[in-house]
């Protein structure tokens, strides 16, 4: 069990069936999937639940939230374990199995795991109501828009592909958060041009990335999304960056998610005013 990530499958190891069932009867092991067991104290642990899929169904591929947790989004909530296989699998509590062929080039095989690569995972999870999967993949550089477009091209005729295509178009300026995405939409709708996103600037030997920058005007727009509320270190690290930018002659405008969401006209008007000045 230690060698295989905390689970044992008697389908894979039929010679152990008698011992495994005896230990299960004693309460030391517990069934997690058909013919697949883990230590009783480990039942319900996310990595154990995911390992059980690989042990029981060697050809299955972890997708959705499970794939995101294993690749680029380790804190994503995991309400269920989703996996895809080329054959129909029997439904199990806590699992969602889909019959789906995933191109081999979009499968990551690492340390005994099999899961969809970040590009396919991001477009699988993202919706217009929640774009976090794409935004976080871009922010962490786990995948690029080009990779996501290629993943979409290699998985044609899937339900929802029309929405995924529109989502990737909406992501063309590479937002790193929902707040940035909303700001990009407002700037485009207002016809404001001359800006770029995630612009690298080196000041006193330190590299900073600006959320939105009008480099010719030395105007920076910094957007404090939800991560600034949840992660104090992000908030703190933004202060030296702002000070360095202002000392270098940049004008810095800061907006919160609430300001962009609730007062979009004021956001656009403030940017216009700064550009005019």
Observed structural traits:
277 residues; alpha+beta; Endonuclease, Chain A; 4-stranded mixed β-sheet; 3-stranded antiparallel β-sheet; 12 helices; 42% helix
Based on secondary structure, the structural category is alpha+beta
Q: How many helical elements?
A: 12
Radius of gyration: 24 Å
How many domains in all?
2
Order of helices and strands: EHEEHEHEEEEHHHHHEEEHHEHH
Percent strand equals 15-25%
Global shape = elongated
Fraction of residues in helices?
40-55%
Largest sheet: 4 strands, mixed
In spatial order, strands of the major sheet run: 9-10-11-12
Q: Average pLDDT value?
A: 93
Could you give the distance between the termini? 67 Å
E-strand count = 12
Topology, please?
Layout: E1 7-9, H1 17-25, E2 29-33, E3 36-39, H2 46-56, E4 61-63, H3 64-71, E5 81-85, E6 95-99, E7 107-110, E8 113-116, H4 118-125, H5 132-139, H6 145-154, H7 161-170, H8 178-189, E9 196-203, E10 206-214, E11 219-224, H9 226-230, H10 232-247, E12 251-256, H11 257-262, H12 264-276
Commentary on this structure:
With 277 residues, this protein is an alpha+beta fold. It is built from 12 helices and 12 strands. It has helices at 17-25, 46-56, 64-71, 118-125, 132-139, 145-154, 161-170, 178-189, 226-230, 232-247, 257-262, 264-276; strands at residues 7-9, 29-33, 36-39, 61-63, 81-85, 95-99, 107-110, 113-116, 196-203, 206-214, 219-224, 251-256. The strands form 4 sheets. Strands 9-10-11-12 form a 4-stranded mixed sheet, with helices on both faces. Strands 1-3-2 form a 3-stranded antiparallel sheet, sandwiched between helices. A hairpin with a 4-residue loop joins strand 10 and strand 11 (219-224). It is elongated and about 80 Å long. The mean pLDDT is 93.
């Amino acid at each position: 069990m230690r060698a295989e990530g905390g689970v044992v499958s008697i389908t894979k190891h039929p010679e152990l069936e008698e011992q495994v069932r005896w230990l299960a009867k004693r309460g030391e092991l517990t069934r997690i999937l058909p013919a697949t067991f883990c230590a009783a104290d480990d039942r319900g642990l996310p990595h154990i639940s995911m390992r059980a899929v690989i042990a029981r169904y060697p050809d299955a591929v972890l997708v959705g939230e499970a794939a995101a947790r294993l690749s680029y989004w380790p804190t994503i909530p995991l309400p269920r374990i989703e996996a895809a296989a080329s054959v129909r699998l029997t439904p199990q509590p806590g699992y969602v199995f889909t019959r789906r062929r995933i191109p081999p080039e979009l499968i990551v095989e690492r340390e005994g795991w099999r899961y969809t690569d970040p590009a396919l995972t991001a477009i699988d999870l993202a919706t217009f109501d929640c774009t976090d999967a794409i935004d976080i993949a871009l922010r962490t550089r786990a995948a690029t828009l080009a990779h996501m477009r290629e993943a979409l091209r290699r998985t044609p005729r899937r339900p929802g592909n029309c929405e995924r295509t529109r989502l990737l178009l909406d992501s063309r300026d590479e937002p790193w958060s929902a707040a940035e995405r909303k700001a990009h939409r407002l700037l485009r709708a207002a016809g404001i041009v001359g800006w770029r996103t995630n612009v690298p600037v080196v000041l006193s030997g330190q590299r900073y990335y600006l959320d939105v920058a009008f480099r010719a005007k030395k105007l920076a727009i910094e957007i404090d999304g939800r991560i600034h509320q949840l992660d104090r270190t992000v908030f703190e690290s933004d202060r030296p960056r702002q000070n360095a930018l202002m000392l270098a002659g940049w004008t810095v405008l800061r907006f919160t998610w609430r300001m962009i969401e609730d007062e979009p006209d004021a956001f656009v008007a403030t940017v216009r005013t700064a550009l005019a000045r």
